[in-house]
Every structure is written in structure tokens, then in C-alpha cells.
Amino acid sequence: MALGSDSGRGMWSNRWVFVLAAAGSAVGLGNIWKFPYIAGENGGGAFVLIYLVCVGLVGIPIMISEVMLGRTARSSPIHAMRKLTDLAGASRKWVFIGWMGVVAGFMILSYYAVIAGWALNYILLTAQGTFTEISADGAALTYNEFLASPLQLIFWHTLFMVLTIWIVGRGVSQGLEFAIRWFMPLLFILLLVLLGYSFTSAGFAQGLEFMFDTRFEAVSGETWLVAMGQAFFTLSLGMGAMMAYGSYVPENVSIGKTVMIIALLDTFVAVAAGMVIFPIVFANGLEAGQGPGLMFVTIPLAFGQLPMGEIFGTIFFVLVSFAAFTSAISLTEPALSYLVEEYNAKRKRVAISLGVMCWILGLGTVFSFNIWSTGYIIGQMTVFDFVDYVSQNIMLPLGGMLIAVFSVWVLPQTTVGEQLGIRGGFLGVLWKLLGGLVAPVCVLVIFVYTVMPLFTNAG
Ligand code: PFF
Known about the structure:
By secondary structure, the protein is mainly α.
């Protein structure tokens, strides 16, 4: 049974529009910027393997749960959880999932907009030819000088936020769907071109070895936590974004198969981005574990050596920016749709208020790279590290775990069966095993081993 499917809220016109929209949310800075740099910081191959395990065993079942909850309730995540707890006759405390998602989305967007602003600036820098024939040191210097200037960061951060709020305020616009339709395929093509380039670079073998040679000595509990956080982040899980998008999925779409396609596309982009970046890193004697600057140093460096690099480089950063926009929009959706539904408020007004608050919080991230770079919140964590860590490694996995538990153990399984087309049998067992047991237990175990000591030590 779908609740309120006739409410006229609109629907994706078919499965592929949903795949594009969900892939638009999933594919973003998390794939191209974050995945390579955290793989670099966490020793490469072993991290990649653990990450793939997290996507397969934890990410996919949770994405299925989220989309299913959204489609069953057909409302914004907080309202969806209210309807679903009523349907299941369960405690309203489960609505906490929706609230935590709203807060997590807000926190993530605050720093997401700052980093996406860097990509906007890099469109301009690349187009101006700043990186033409530049040396590795020169590329690093450009990046470091940019980060040292709070005013420049604030300018680009503000621009990204204003554009995002403008798009979001206009509703799920034709423009957005148009952009996704054109820019996602273009992003794939460009990634393939870059793969070709890195394949011919001197560091290819070393890069490949770094990405796929599993040295488990480097693995700790922390590695699992980071890999799991990344799986949640990159698939846009645990905060209701997929629930919100799932609420527009037509009844005849197979959720399981569609989710697999989305997860595969997302994983492909992340792994391809790593295979583009690491060979260039090694060919130029750069550091794999250099952190957030990895993409902003190696990619311009690579394009700087290529014929017509200015053009390709510019297109690359345009596409990264588009990927970031389509993700940022989905980050605002849980909060925005809730406020609009609950208070019958004007979408535009709500969007502007949310944007201003988020922008202010984002200043903490801006300053983490310059004037507050040693202003630690806990241990060695700057404001950026802290907001990133808490939202990505704690809130998203916690939200995801509760979503899976709710879907398998609280929601009537007849509803689940109808939504997922499962009638007991092997798939029924698999659903219970992965969604109800493996995914929540993995999250819990990793949590207890890594997050708890962090807080007890800090306190
Ligand atoms: N999945 C996006 C990325 O990889 O960049 C980030 C993101 C978007 C996270 C939406 C969470 C979310 F709800």
C-alpha cells in the first residue's frame, strides 16, 4: 500500500528520470574530490576494498530501504516517518530519523558549498590559462594561496550558495532536469578521456598498484569508519535525501534493480576519479595523502600539460560544479520540503532563510583553511573537520542504521513485500539478513569500536 499516492505531488516520469536524479544526488564532490583524497590518506587499496564491501553490504540495502520508505509514504522525510510510524503502530520516536537527516543535510551543505565554490573558482583559473605548463609546485602554490584568502573563499562560497538557493527556490525545475540529462553523460565522457590520459602517464602502474594493492597493515578501526562514512556520503544515504526522491518514484519501478544501477554508476565515477588522479600524482612526485587539495592540484596540473588543456580543464571544472549543484539541491530537499509542507510556506522564502543560516555556518569551514586553521574543536579537528566528521561518520551511518532497522523490523512486512516485489523465498531471506542484520550490526560494531573511544578520550 502506498500512502497518499494520489496527492498530486508529482512523480518522476519514468525509471530513468529517477536514476538520473538519484545519480545526480549521489555523484558529486564525494566521488571526484573526496574519494581519491581519503583513499590517499588511508593507504589506498585496502581502503578501496573496504569501501566496496561497505557499499555492497551496507549501502545498497539501506538505499533500498530509504527509497522504499519514501515511495510508501509519498511525503517529505519527517512527514513520511510520521505516516509510517502510524501505519506500523510504532512509537513516534522514530521520527527522530527525519529530524537528524534535516540537521545532517544542513551541516553537510555548509561545507559542501565552500568546496564547490573552489571548483567554481577553478573554472575561471583554468579558462584563464593559469595552469598551462605549470609545475607541480606551481599548482600547489596557486591552491595554497587561494586557501589562505578568506575573502576569495567567501566570494566563491557565496556564489555557489546563491545559485543553489536560486535553483532550489524555483522548485524541481525543468532546468535542473535538463542539466542532469546533459551534464551527467558529459561528465562520464570526460572522465573516460582523462582515464585515457592517465593510462599513458608514467605513473599509471604505480597509481594502479596504489588503488588496488591491498596492504592490510594500514587498516585500523578508523579505516572502517571512514570507508563506511564515505559509502553513506557518496550514495547520499542516511539523511532522507533518497527518501525524498523515492517519494516521487512511480509504482511500477523496481526499486532493487534501480538502486543497483545508481550504486554502480556512483562507484564507477569514484574509482575512475581515483584512477585518473593517482597516476598523475605519482608521475609528478606528489603526495597521495595530501588531503582535500588533491583534486585541486593534480587535475589542473594534468590539464596544464595537455593540448587544449585550458578548454578541457574548464569543462572538467564546469562538470564538477554541476555535479556539486545536483547534490547540493538534494541536500536541501528534506528540510525544505518539510517546512513547505508543515507551514504551507513559500518555497522561495524558506529556501532563502535556510541558505542564509547555512552560509553562516559555512564561514566556519572557510576560516578552517586560514585564520582558524589551528583553532581546534576536538583533538586536531578544525571546524571543517569536525562538521565533516560528525555529519558524515556519525549522523549518516546512525540515520542509515535506524532506517534499515525500521524497514525490516518495524514496518509491516506485507507493505515491504508489495513495495519491493518480494514474496518470501531467497530474496526475503536476503532482505532480512542484509537490511535487518548485516547492515545495522556493521554500523553498530564500527561505531562502538571507533567513535566511543574518541569521545571518552576527548572527555
Ligand atoms: N552524494 C553527494 C556526493 O557524493 O558528493 C553528497 C551528498 C548529497 C550527501 C546528498 C548526502 C546527501 F543527502
